[in-house]
Amino acid sequence: MKIGIDKIGFYTPHLYVDMKKLAVAREIEPEKFTIGIGQEKMALAPLTQDAVTLAANAALNILDEKDKEKIDLVIFGTESGIDHSKAAAIYVHHLLGLRSEARAFEIKQACYGATAGIQMAKGHIALNPESKVLVLGSDISRYGLNTSGEATQGAGAVALVISAEPSILAFEEQSAYVTADIMDFWRPIYSEAAFVDGKFSNEQYIQFFATAWAQYKAKTNLALKDFEAICFHLPYTKMGLKALKPVLLEEGSAADQERLLANYQVSTGYNRVVGNIYTGSLYLSLLSLLEQQEDLADGERIGLFSYGSGAVGEFFTGILQPGFRSHLNVVQHMDLLSSRAEVSVAEYEAIFQQTLPIDGTTVELDNTNDPAEIYLAGMTNNMRQYINKQTEDSIYS
Predict the structure, then answer these.
(1) Which of 93, 124, 233, 333 does the annotation list as catalytic?
(2) Locate the Hydroxymethylglutaryl-coenzyme A synthase N-terminal domain: which residues (predicted)?
(3) What is the DSSP letter of 226?
(4) Closest by alpha carbon to 134, among 108, 111, 112, 103?
(5) Are 234 and 201 in contact (CB under 8 A)?
(6) 3-state SS class at 16
(7) Residue 397 in this model has a pLDDT that exceeds 70
């Protein structure tokens, strides 16, 4: 029985910052952002969007009634959770109108969370072949204004329906994974912004990929020649390249290098104009490859490297399924990205510093300029109120 990605959806807020203009405002050479780390735009979440709404909007347009009847497990990977107790998956489950006979929970391990969810989903489908699992990776990346990590912020979510006999990508059985207790990136519960040791984190990312790749080769006897493309978790678009290049130079033929580097570049397309979305980043890279690379063919093998600081890394693979292109939402995603509005650096700074009350104060948020179907409407008695415009339904935490 094949198990894999049956559907995939993506959502990002309607606002963005131009990285060249941000660089000028920070008195930095623009090329350090656009070329050095490979970022052109940075998605910005207004106060009416949080990890819950981003995930719900990502899933909203890919689910039909048959999916809703078969989904009996919702797994929400995030490091931007809104509650220390109640899982973000519960809110999404309700906002999407999923059936009550379901499990729903939140999972955390930095940017690895959605991948952990996928591995759990595979086990669930193996035991329950008629079921489907909704896996969500949703985050708002925050390091703070005028910080070293500011240029690698972003906001967005990816939603994946995992099922038997998938329409897009079937996962292969073998994977390779590694865990080590390191402090390269973390966010204590008292902090709204993350802390990062950038140089150390880059080194660990590269080392984890090398280790996982070596383990994978030993398990499978596969080599670079067996892959059409390898997608990476991308905190910024140059990061995956730093890990891939040493392996290509040591093991790859000229043809391998040309093919994998070209496809890597395509896979960074969406990330380049959205920024870092933590748990969804790898799958946004995969989505960019699938929707923007016209030369991909049914039956080709795609490698996926997931990395979550702290740290866990995993390398796994999938095979493109017959007719996979007909199950993508290329026009919808391109319209989403092209319809966004640019904000000035001053406007970005003002929006970035807006926060919800933490003392129980009632607040109603103005969503007039937010085109999202699902949004955060406000807070009452320490409860967030979410609204789905399609149903005019609302819920409180």
Answers:
(1) 233
(2) 2-164
(3) G
(4) 103
(5) no
(6) strand
(7) no
Residues 35 and 163 in one domain: yes
Q: What is the mean pLDDT of residues 223-252?
A: 97
Beta strands in 275-392 (DSSP E): 301-308, 312-320, 341-342, 363-364, 374-380, 383-388
Q: Are residues 185 and 313 in the same domain?
A: yes
Question: Cα-flanking dihedrals φ and ψ of residue 140, to 5°?
Answer: -120, 115
Question: Does the annotation count 233 as an active-site position?
Answer: yes
Helices within the chain (DSSP H only): 19-25, 30-31, 51-60, 65-70, 88-95, 113-127, 198-220, 239-251, 254-267, 269-274, 281-292, 330-338, 345-352
Question: Is position 93 annotated as part of the catalytic site?
Answer: no
Residue 170 pLDDT greater than 70, yes or no? yes
Q: Are residues 55 and 150 in the same domain?
A: yes
Residues 126 and 33 grouped into a single domain: yes
CB 247 within 8 A of CB 212: no
238-276 pLDDT tens trace:
999 999 999 999 999 999 999 999 999 999 999 999 999
Number of domains, the chain = 2
Burial class of residue 36, CB neighbours in 10 A (0-12, 13-18, 19+) = middle
Q: What angle do CA 135, 71, 303 make, to 5 degrees?
A: 35
3-state secondary structure of 98: coil
What dihedral do alpha carbons 99, 64, 372, 156 form, nearest 10°? 90
Residue whose C-alpha is closest to residue 114's, from 311, 269, 282: 282
pLDDT of residue 396: 52
Residues 344 and 384 in one domain: yes
How remote is the C-alpha of 47 from its chain's centroid? 20
Annotated catalytic residue within 93, 106, 111, 124:
111
Question: Could you count the other beta carbons within 10 Å of the beta carbon of residue 165?
Answer: 13
**124-167 confidence digits (pLDDT tens):** 999 999 999 999 999 999 999 999 999 999 999 999 999 999 99
The span from the CA of 264 to the CA of 273, in Å, is: 15
Distance of CA 10 to the CA centre of its chain: 8
Cα separation of 157 and 59, whole Å? 9
Nearest residue to 55 (alpha-carbon basis) of 103, 130, 131, 106 = 106
